[in-house]
User: Which sequence fits this backbone?
């Protein structure tokens, strides 16, 4: 097989051809500024309105509650920093989890430096937030709870309904980073009592550099990017019309085909998991088996280095990841894998495979065969494995 097999859709996805096609005219013929009075501007304005309507409908919310941003990170920063400031008279305590994306964790660290107090709730061995701990962490001065919808590394889907209900009962704002979930699994903002939600275009076959923050009507929040009056005075900056159009089209496709995409991805996912568990010894599936994104597979293989595994898989045309893209280049094991209790050496030997609707069963067979071969080869070179085998033989 000389073709590339892309299994890193949690890092980014291919922009769908339909999204690209929808975007193109807004670079060339319809380049008007969406704020301009004349017809050319109105065309851009209408295109933004249409995308906003599609996205609002996908969440069953009002279009006036959707604010376009330059991606998921900006939406996360905005939700946390602006809400923290707006509600500081009520208190300065924030609750989040230990397995959030760095866009949340590093923003929390920034807020700690600014005098806020943050409680990081632990997760269990499957990566599910400990609800009992979360409830106990709530105080009089807690103003915000931010827990991700689904984890980008291990795919665990959190008990969002329970967290939302808990927050609402206590009158605390609830934000969720839904970047990995939006367009991949159904999200009922109303039933889940979500006040703010972040999403990103490039994780759902839309373009990079565009995202949105849903802000429930009535939530006090100041603007984050200061300047013009765009996005109802809450997010300045000339609208990224092609990006927004592309995101809208990607969202339309994702929600239109969600059921089929989920069924197909979970079939491939379960096949991968089953074959790897059966055929490769000393491995461990990371993340919850049931409450899991349909496209996520994450394994740790003992006695090997994830980095070497990735390089050798790359030589076989397979694009995968050993943690989150943001941590590649650093030798620290992923904070998520440590949070679920993996020892450093096991966390280091981990592999994340994230699927798209383009993957096939044939590819899955090729991939498992490749992983088997590479893991075996790396173990043969590993002194740790040699020691382990000797010990086993003595017993
Ligand atoms: C990718 C990702 C982000 C960041 O989104 P960008 O659009 O790349 O800024 C935030 N949170 C999670 C869970 C992600 O997977």
Assistant:
């Amino acid at each position: 097989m000389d073709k590339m097999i892309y299994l890193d859709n949690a890092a980014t996805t291919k922009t769908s051809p339909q999204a690209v096609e929808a975007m193109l005219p807004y670079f060339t013929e319809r380049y008007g500024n969406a704020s301009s009075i004349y017809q050319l501007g109105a065309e851009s304005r209408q295109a933004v309105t249409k995308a906003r309507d599609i996205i609002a409908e996908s969440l069953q919310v009002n279009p006036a509650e959707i604010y376009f941003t330059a991606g998921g990170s900006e939406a996360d920063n905005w939700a946390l920093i602006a809400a923290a400031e707006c509600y500081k008279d009520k208190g300065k305590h924030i609750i989040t989890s230990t397995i959030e994306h760095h866009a949340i964790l590093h923003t929390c660290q920034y807020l700690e430096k600014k005098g806020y107090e943050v409680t990081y709730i632990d997760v269990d061995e499957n990566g599910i937030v400990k609800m009992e701990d979360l409830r106990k962490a709530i105080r009089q001065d807690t103003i915000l709870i931010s827990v991700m919808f689904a984890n980008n590394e291990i795919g665990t889907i959190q008990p969002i309904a329970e967290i939302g209900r808990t927050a609402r009962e206590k009158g605390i704002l609830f934000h969720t980073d839904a970047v990995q979930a939006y367009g991949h699994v159904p999200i009922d903002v109303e039933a889940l009592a979500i006040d703010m939600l972040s999403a990103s275009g490039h994780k759902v076959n839309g373009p990079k550099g565009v995202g949105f923050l849903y802000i429930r009507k009535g939530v006090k929040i100041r603007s984050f990017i200061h300047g013009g009056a765009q996005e109802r005075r809450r997010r300045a900056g000339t609208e990224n019309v092609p990006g927004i159009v592309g995101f809208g089209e990607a969202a339309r496709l994702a929600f239109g085909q969600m059921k089929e995409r989920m069924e197909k991805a979970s079939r491939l996912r379960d096949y991968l998991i089953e074959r790897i568990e059966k055929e490769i010894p000393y491995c461990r599936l990371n993340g919850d088996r049931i409450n899991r994104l349909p496209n996520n597979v994450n394994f740790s293989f003992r006695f090997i280095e994830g980095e070497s595994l990735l390089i050798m898989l790359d030589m076989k045309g397979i694009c995968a990841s050993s943690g989150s893209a943001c941590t590649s280049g650093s030798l620290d094991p992923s904070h998520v894998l440590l949070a679920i209790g993996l020892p450093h050496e096991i966390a280091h030997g981990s592999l994340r495979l994230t699927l798209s609707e383009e993957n096939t069963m044939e590819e899955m067979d090729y991939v498992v065969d490749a992983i088997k071969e590479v893991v075996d080869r790396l173990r043969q070179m590993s002194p740790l494995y040699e020691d382990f085998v000797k010990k086993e033989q003595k017993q």
User: Anything to note?
Assistant: The CA atoms of residues 228 and 295 lie 39 Å apart. The pocket of pyridoxal-5'-phosphate is lined by residues 71-73, 76, 101, 103, 148, 152, 177, 179-180, 200, 202-203, 211 (CB under 6 Å). The radius of gyration is 22 Å. Residues 258-279 form the longest helix (22 residues).
